[in-house]
Write a structure and sequence with these properties.
Layout: E1 9-13, H1 17-28, E2 32-37, H2 40-51, E3 56-61, H3 67-81, E4 86-89, H4 108-135, E5 145-150, H5 166-186, E6 191-198, H6 207-210, H7 213-222, H8 232-243, E7 254-257
Parallel strand pairs: 1-2, 1-4, 2-3, 4-5, 5-6, 6-7
């Protein structure tokens, strides 16, 4: 059903993997996409891939872990588009290279970088966007806006053999707590807040995992619907639903896209 997000202003953090797939998906449904990230090359590529088929995409270069840059980027989006209907907080990192691991091995840098990027950036982006949403008039459907946050099945379904990164798990569990608290507070203001929880997806962040033959074999049974890695488009399709009016009465939920991970 084309046009489900016609003329809706969608702000998405990130420009590769799930962020890129979702940007293309919502643009195909008529959304005006604003992609925020610090990788200018992938931002340029994403913009071209959306605009060549006739979609609308603008990009804003910013570091979403820095308050001043976040505020500037959100203000820039509002200046160009007049409002923000949806925010999808996708940006996140694996903290392994900084020292994330089991708690007894986790370094201060690994903990602080992972929590600061995965949870801190989400708070900063949400803060700036919610300030705008609270000021704007509801659309015809009766809502001011929607926020969608990226968590992970590892927040509530750990896998110690392959994913002993405890700062990452804590950051993604924090996303769930933040999402539920925000959903309760902002519902009376006609703003929805939800989270999406993927299992293992074939993205640039999972390159290490994609080269691990033992993990590939593990995923054949742990993610039986995909018999391996999910594709970014699998998550983008779910994100599309959670941003559309088809889910207009849904808030405070954590929506798993895990190919059977949590039941296998």
């Amino acid at each position: 059903m084309a046009g489900r997000l016609e003329q809706r202003v969608v702000l998405i953090t990130g420009s590769t993997g799930i962020a890129a797939a979702t940007s293309k998906r919502v643009a195909a449904e008529g959304a005006l996409v604003y992609a925020i990230g610090n990788d200018t090359e992938s931002l340029r590529t994403l913009k071209a891939e959306i605009e060549n088929p006739g979609g609308t995409c603008d990009t804003i270069a910013a570091d979403v872990t820095v308050t001043a840059e976040v505020d500037r980027a959100v203000a820039d989006c509002v200046r160009r588009a007049g409002r923000i209907d949806m925010l999808f907080n996708v940006v996140g990192i694996s903290g392994r290279r900084f020292g994330d691991g089991p708690v007894h091995e986790c370094t201060d840098e690994g903990w602080e970088m992972t929590i600061g990027t995965n949870l801190g950036s989400m708070m900063r982006m949400s803060r700036a966007v919610l300030r705008q949403m609270l000021l704007q008039e509801p659309r015809a459907g009766g809502l001011r806006g929607s926020v969608l946050n990226m968590t992970s099945v590892l927040a509530y379904s750990p896998e110690p053999r392959h994913f002993s990164t405890h700062a990452y798990a804590a950051s993604k569990a924090g996303v769930i707590g933040l999402t539920e608290a925000m959903a309760a507070f902002y519902a009376p203001h006609l703003i929805r807040v939800n989270a999406i929880a993927p299992a293992l997806v074939r993205t640039p962040m999972s390159r290490r995992a994609q080269q691990d033959t033992a993990l590939q074999e593990f995923l054949r049974t742990k993610q039986p619907l995909s018999r391996g890695f999910l594709e970014p488009e699998d998550v983008a399709n779910a994100a599309m639903f959670l941003m559309s009016d088809e889910s207009r009465m849904v808030t405070g939920t954590v929506f798993p896209v895990d190919a059977g991970w949590t039941v296998s």
